[in-house]
Amino acid sequence: MELFSYAKDIGRYEKMQQTLLVNGIDDFSSILSKESDFIFVNSDLESYNKYINKPRLYDYMAKNKVVLEFHNYDKKDINNLKDTIDTIHKNRGLVALDNFGLGSLSIDDLNVLDIDYIVPDRSFVVDIVNDNEKRKYINELVTYSISRDIKMIAIGVENLETLQLLNEIGVRYVQGYYFGVPNNVIDMINDKLKVSLTNDLENII
Fold it and tell me: Model confidence over 151-167: pLDDT tens digits?
């Protein structure tokens, strides 16, 4: 994503992650209208653990249904990840693992992690209709998720055939361009954050 590259170029990547975490919860909590609504906030695991204002974040968790969606994790991070998840749960937050299947963390490794949602990388969903290996992997992940009472979200749904196949396999939560392309929203967020990143972000959080 262009925004992340920009943040890294100016040495503000971690600060951007922290800003997204807090401001994302702020923005969406103001528009939620249903008791069933959850706020999903993407965060780099390392950046989250370096976040300096944990009490404020825990306060958000207590007031809103916050799901912290971690990416950029690996098997070597499993003990740290477990401790982080346990702390989030103690503070009434929920946890999702994004981009699952890309790193060295396997389905068996999930046995020691008390996660609430799992999001397989979109590469396992795109063209799944024509790829038996992808279908086998997603089916295995669905079976495991059901056995652990973990909700699975399939992203990358771009056509009706993919949606129908995922439904047959047992996937109940989906996301993708088949339902709409949020280009205008993405552009607006990118522009807003670029301005923030070039200012003193210490004042934002």
Answer: 999 999 999 999 999 99
Name the residue with tokens 């047959």.
168
Q: Which of 101, 140, 137, 136 is nearest to 121 (CA)?
A: 101
**Residues 154 and 120 sit within 8 Å (Cβ to Cβ):** yes
User: Which residues 6+ apart lie within 8 Å of 27 measured at CB?
Assistant: none
In angstroms, how far is CA 5 from the centroid of its own chain? Answer: 19
Determine the Cα–Cα distance for residues 68 and 58; give it in Å rounded to an integer.
Answer: 12
Three-class SS of residue 43?
A: strand
Which residue reads 């950029």 in tokens? 72
Tokens representing 140?
A: 């295995």
Supply the pTM of this predicted model.
0.78
Question: β-strands 151-155, 173-175: how paired?
Answer: parallel
